[in-house]
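To: structure subgroup
Subject: Chain for Friday's discussion

All,

I'm putting the inputs and outputs inline so they're searchable in the archive.
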Amino acid sequence: MNKFLALLALVAIVMLPSCTNKSQANQPETAMETATPTAASIYDFTVKDIDGKDVSLADFKGKVLVIVNVASKCGLTPQYAEIQAFYDKYKEKGVVVLGFPANNFAGQEPGSNEQIKTFCSTNYGVTFPMFAKVSVKGNDQHALYKWLTHKDQNGVVEAPVTWNFQKFVVNREGKVVSSFSPQTTVTNAKFLEAIQSLL
């Protein structure tokens, strides 16, 4: 019996360092997997346009950007008309609207990129840049929207997207300066003040 107990103790001593080393070996790997690189500015991102081509957002350096997550079957979809009119008025002053279709809210953007492009052109005469459909929240959130919505990444605003047509304003240096609720239109006085302050 004593020999059996001694053998068990010996096995436990041999196994213990092995388990400890395995745990320690896994720690750095886990840390690396959960680490998220933080972009210095919006210019660090490359996205797909609505036709599937890569677009570096550095192409918009020096512009004031209004980034909007859009949807075709939402009660707020008529905002497209105001957004297009806003773009027509301010583009000569260096303002660019970037539209990102997203299907995160009540399945209100179910179409393909081609269908979305046709819808926007036919119904609202959209000419501002439109991009491929992305996810703006959740586990599959696009990297750009992780940066836009998390203060620990953009350094300014903590602004999770709450519905279609939320608006982010980015200054000429590629930094987020403000976020506006989906219900706040581009004709709203506070929104226009924010734009005017950057011109």
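Points worth raising on Friday:
The first strand starts at residue 46 and ends at 48.
Confidence is low (pLDDT under 50) at residues 7-37.

D.
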